[in-house]
Each structure stands twice: as structure tokens, then as C-alpha cells.
Write a structure and sequence with these properties.
Strands 1, 2, 3, 4, 5, 6 and 17 form a seven-stranded mixed β-sheet that branches. It is built from 13 helices and 22 strands. The radius of gyration is 24 Å and the shape is globular. With 475 residues, the protein is of the alpha/beta class. 31% of the residues lie in helices and 26% in strands. The structure holds flavin-adenine dinucleotide. The site of flavin-adenine dinucleotide has 37 residues, from helix 1, strand 2, helix 2, helix 3 and strand 4.
């Protein structure tokens, strides 16, 4: 007989595990089912984010940045280092260790909060008066019933039909984070967040990297001024980025991959690479979930259809994270997971989609929250803009990293902050101040009047806010 729970969560990524823990903290009985396996076949809680996404990519970005910095960034500080060598096996082992710490941490939190964890694949079986029955298989073989079900099954990388992932020569994010020898030539299709982060890692480790992107504009989702600045800096670092290309045939040989493409002017090219990373987006994952058994509705692209409260089309069925509409970001999944748990117990969980920050962890980092200048123009909003370069920031000079700028966009009449865009050192950390400010509907002047410690990078944020009203101190 199936064991009954108040809530069954399918998927143990950031959306699912946060929902499970929050629901348990709110006094509900909770089971979380997750099928991810580590190398030994054991559980690997944490989803894409922990296993093959946010966490391992940031570990590799950090390690590769150290490698580059020790070779090229220290002499200027008067630190001479000779005989620098790459130990890629150690770098990968460290990355795997960081992943494992996170896997184990989530399992510990499940135990601490009395969440029942079931290792296996969950599939809807039926619904009756007691709730939804979910079969759990591989390696588990059991079934559970939930009064409420939260679907948090995440997403999978989108493959090119002409070059399916083999994770040897044609790599998704999974293979891109586990290359065992630095390729001489690396091709990347897709200049989005993942393509830029992975391209940066392998370039820093010595690969000659070419990124091919179909869109005509670089980082079209980012503010144009910030995207242009970032593009300039990436090219200077040695990333070859070709925009507006049309990918043709891809031939996977025994040792290399040939990509035929037309450049923006229509001229034909052949790119021969040792490895090809395909990072052209992600697709929602409902493989094996058996949504038809209970009539759970998906849209034409495979996303579970939900309303603004993450309610699916069935009573007491919810869905969060990458498997539903909205940005595919771990922190968005987490916010939705916590909010759904709160709604189940009658609270008013809320996710503010207009203050979800975006971050690209390249060097320099790129981060933003709110609307871009081009969006404000398209929306017909009267706005003021102010920006400040890190070149004029004392802390950035002391660090030896003066690339980039902070840019504020505020309402022309009310001065309310509408968007903040940063390209530069520690942009991922600096953006939080803007998120807090926007969450409280602060004005640019509010930030300008707040005392920021000196010398800090955050003074560039204050200066950009001051610049909105042309009051920059320019120290
Ligand atoms: C290379 C890379 C880097 C990234 N970097 C960042 C970053 O820096 N910041 C950021 O915010 N986002 C980042 N992301 C995106 C982030 O990983 C996702 O947005 C996030 O993981 C989505 O969380 P989720 O809980 O919806 O799904 P997932 O994390 O995908 O978790 C879903 C889980 O459900 C399991 N599952 C699926 N179906 C079933 C089933 N039927 N039964 C049982 N289990 C099932 C899966 O195996 C998986 O473990 C990155 C992604 C990639 C690929």
C-alpha cells in the first residue's frame, strides 16, 4: 500500500528541495522523490544546479580564474610566480568534491527537517479521494500518495538535431564540465550565459575558443550598453565570438567535429574543433512523469501550465522552477518552491518576477535587475540614466580590476529605480543592493544618500545613482 503524505515533491533540485524543506518546516508530512545518481549510483540531490549547473560551473570558473590570474594578473602586484602548471585532474576532482558537499548538505537538511527522501523516478499513477498516487522506480521500487503534489522536474539541455550529445565530442553542460584534457580548439554554439561561462573556463585553461551565435545582437537580454562593454572585454581576452551566424551541417568525426556555417554576411565557413559545446537553451523535463495518467496539462513546448501562483490545472497540483514559464534560474525555482509550500498551508507566498536578478559569472561578471534601457524605450517609459565606470573607483584600482561600469535607470518623474546593470568585478554580489532597493521601491536618490563604506566597489553603485541626477562626485 502506498504511504500517504501531505505533500509529495517530484524533483530534488533547487525548486523541489526548497519546497520540500519549507513544507516540512510548516508542519506538513513531506516526501521528495529525485532520480539523479552520482558516479557510484547513489543519490545526488540538488538537481541540475548542484550536479551539472550552477555549482560545478562556478567551481570551474573560480579555479580557471585562479590559473589565469596567477599567470597574468600577479606580476603587476609585484608577485613573481614561475613554473605555473595546470593540474586539470585535481581541478576536476575539487569541482566534484564541491558538488558532493552540496549533495550531502541537502540530504542532511532533509533528515534534519524530517523530509522522507525517495531515490528514484516518480510517475503519476492515478488520483482518488486520498490524493495522487506516484510510483517510484529505479533504484527505489515503491509508491506514495500525496494530498498535494509539487512537480519540480527541471529541464534538460536542448540538442541540435544534426549533432546529438555524445558527451565525448559534442557536449552539453554535463560534458563541458568534465573535459579531461584541455582541447586545443573548442567550438561553442550559443553565446548565452552557459556558452559564455563554459567558453571562458576553457579559454583560461588554454583552449582556442570560438563561439558561434545565431542572434545578431550580443546578449540581447542584457542592457545594450553593458552588453557592448562586455563583448569588447571578452574579445580582448581572446574569445572569438561570431554573431548572426547560420549553422549548417555538423560532421562528427572520430577525433574532431566540423561545423559548417554562414557568417552574418552570408559567407560560408568551416570550423574544425576538438570538442563542440552546444548551449542553445534548455527544454522542460517531464520525461517519465506520466502526466496523462492524471490529466496534468503541458503547453506545446512541454512546460507544465501554471497560473501566477504555480497552480497547475489539477486541484492540489503545483509546479515550480525550470519546468514552468519564467526564467530558468535556480533562485527563481527556490522562490517558487518556498512560496508554494506557504500557499499550501494557507499563507501568502509571493514571488516578485520584476526583481529577479540575472548574473553571468564571467570575468568581468555581468549582473542586472529590472528593465534595460531598450525595454524602457520600447515600453514608452520616460527615464533618466546614470552610469559610473570602475576605472574611477578606488577599490577597483587597488584590486587591479577596473573593467566595466554600473548603470542606473530611474523613472524620469518619480526617480524610482527601474533597472540596474553592472559589468565589472563582483557584479554578482553588488547587484543585491539594487535588488533590495527595487524590492522596497527605492529611488535612485535613496541609494545616492546611503553611506557606502570606502573604499568599496559598492561606491561605484552609489556614484551611478548620483549620476542619475548628474551629481557624481567622481572621486
Ligand atoms: C551549466 C549551467 C550553469 C548554471 N548556472 C546557474 C547560475 O549560476 N545561477 C542560476 O540561478 N541558475 C543557473 N543555472 C540554471 C539552474 O541550474 C536551473 O535554473 C535550476 O537547476 C532549476 O531548478 P529546478 O529545481 O527547477 O530543476 P533541476 O535543478 O533541473 O532539478 C530537477 C531534478 O528533478 C529530477 N527529476 C526529473 N524528473 C524526475 C522524475 N520523474 N522523478 C524523480 N526525479 C526527477 C532531476 O533528475 C533533477 O535532479 C545553470 C544551469 C546550467 C546548465
Amino acid at each position: 500500500m502506498a504511504k500517504n503524505f501531505d505533500v509529495v515533491v517530484i524533483g530534488g533540485g533547487p525548486g523541489g528541495y526548497i519546497a520540500a524543506i519549507r513544507a516540512a518546516q510548516l508542519g506538513l508530512s513531506v516526501a521528495c522523490i529525485d532520480d539523479a545518481k552520482n558516479e557510484g549510483g547513489g543519490p545526488a540531490l540538488g538537481g541540475t544546479c548542484t550536479n551539472v549547473g550552477c555549482i560545478p560551473s562556478k567551481a570551474m570558473l573560480q579555479s580557471s580564474e585562479h590559473f589565469e590570474h596567477v599567470q597574468h594578473g600577479l606580476a603587476d602586484h609585484g608577485v613573481d610566480v614561475k613554473g605555473v602548471k595546470l593540474n586539470l585532474a585535481q581541478m576536476l576532482a575539487r569541482k566534484n568534491g564541491v558538488v558532493k558537499q552540496n549533495n550531502d548538505g541537502i540530504q542532511y537538511l532533509f533528515k534534519k527537517n524530517k523530509v522522507t527522501f525517495l531515490h528514484g523516478r516518480g510517475a503519476f499513477v492515478k488520483v482518488d479521494a486520498e490524493g495522487y498516487e506516484i510510483a517510484v522506480s529505479e533504484p527505489a521500487s515503491t509508491s506514495v500518495k500525496g494530498k498535494h503534489v509539487i512537480v519540480a522536474t527541471g529541464s534538460n539541455p536542448r540538442a541540435l538535431p544534426s549533432a546529438p550529445f555524445d558527451e565525448k565530442l559534442v557536449l552539453s553542460n554535463t560534458g563541458a564540465l568534465a573535459i579531461e584534457a584541455v582541447p586545443k580548439k573548442l567550438g561553442v554554439i550559443g553565446a548565452g550565459v552557459i556558452g559564455l561561462e563554459m567558453g571562458s573556463v576553457w579559454r583560461r585553461l588554454g583552449a582556442e575558443v570560438t563561439i558561434l551565435e545565431a542572434m545578431p545582437n550580443f546578449l540581447a537580454a542584457a542592457d545594450e550598453q553593458v552588453a557592448k562593454e562586455a563583448h569588447k572585454l571578452f574579445v580582448k581576452q581572446g574569445l572569438a565570438i561570431e554573431m548572426g551566424v547560420k549553422i549548417g551541417d555538423i560532421k562528427v568525426g572520430s577525433k574532431d567535429v566540423t561545423v559548417e556555417y554562414a557568417d552574418a554576411s552570408g559567407a560560408a565557413h568551416k570550423l574544425v574543433v576538438d570538442k563542440l559545446i552546444v548551449s542553445i537553451g534548455r527544454v522542460p523535463n517531464t520525461n517519465g512523469l506520466n502526466p496523462d495518467a492524471v490529466g496534468l496539462k503541458l503547453d506545446e513546448r512541454g512546460f507544465v501550465i501554471v497560473d501566477e501562483h504555480c497552480r497547475a490545472n489539477l486541484p492540489n497540483v503545483w509546479a515550480v522552477g525550470d519546468v514552468v514559464r519564467g526564467p530558468m534560474l535556480a533562485h527563481k525555482a527556490e522562490e517558487e518552491g518556498a512560496a508554494v509550500a506557504e500557499r499550501i498551508v494557507g499563507q501568502h507566498g509571493h514571488v516578485n518576477f520584476s526583481t529577479i536578478p540575472w548574473v553571468i559569472y564571467t570575468s568581468p561578471e555581468i549582473a542586472w535587475v529590472g528593465r534595460t534601457e531598450q525595454q524602457l524605450k520600447a515600453d514608452g517609459v520616460a527615464y533618466k540614466a546614470g552610469s559610473f565606470p570602475f576605472l574611477a573607483n578606488g577599490r577597483a584600482r587597488a584590486l587591479g580590476d577596473t573593467s566595466g561600469l554600473v548603470k542606473f535607470l530611474a523613472d524620469a518623474k518619480t526617480d524610482e529605480i527601474l533597472g540596474v546593470h553592472i559589468v565589472g568585478p563582483m557584479a554578482s554580489e553588488l547587484i543585491s543592493e539594487a535588488v533590495v532597493a527595487m524590492e522596497f521601491r527605492a529611488s535612485a536618490e535613496d541609494i545616492a544618500r546611503i553611506c557606502h563604506a570606502h573604499p568599496t566597489l559598492s561606491e561605484a553603485t552609489k556614484e551611478a545613482a548620483l549620476a542619475v541626477d548628474k551629481r557624481a562626485l567622481n572621486f
